[in-house]
Amino acid sequence: MTATYLEGLADPAVLPRIDEVNRGHFEAAARGRLAVRECTACGLLFHYPRPFCPRCHSAELTWTELSGNATVLVAALVSRPPWNDLPRSAPYPVVVVRLAEGPQMLSTVEDCDPTTVVAGMAVRAAFERVGDIGIVRFVPA
Known about the structure:
By secondary structure, this protein is mainly beta. About 5% of the residues lie in helices and about 40% in strands. The protein has one helix and nine strands, in the order βαββββββββ. GO terms for molecular function: DNA binding.
């Protein structure tokens, strides 16, 4: 599947701090791939990246690329950008999605009428490149 790329949503002045724990996720997103941590001890897939497995506390972790297919679990409509000079149209939907492979993510759904984003909606990962990293967003499937 070809990756979908979006532009102009993130503020380049306020990006996640990249470190050795989360670098794989953001570098994969810059390449149009959704990568999460997998515990090699117990097999748990999880997001947000952390240095230990949240289930068994093992530090034996690897990066695993997922399909990017997901279902919206919860959606909330945000009526204004988090700060006034962020060039983002509002309202926009903030969501928690469950990826097809199991992990959950907090993100946004783009390229649709924000009022149509509801729990149960099928979405797929889309990516926004900002410098050397990528931000994972979602679009209707």
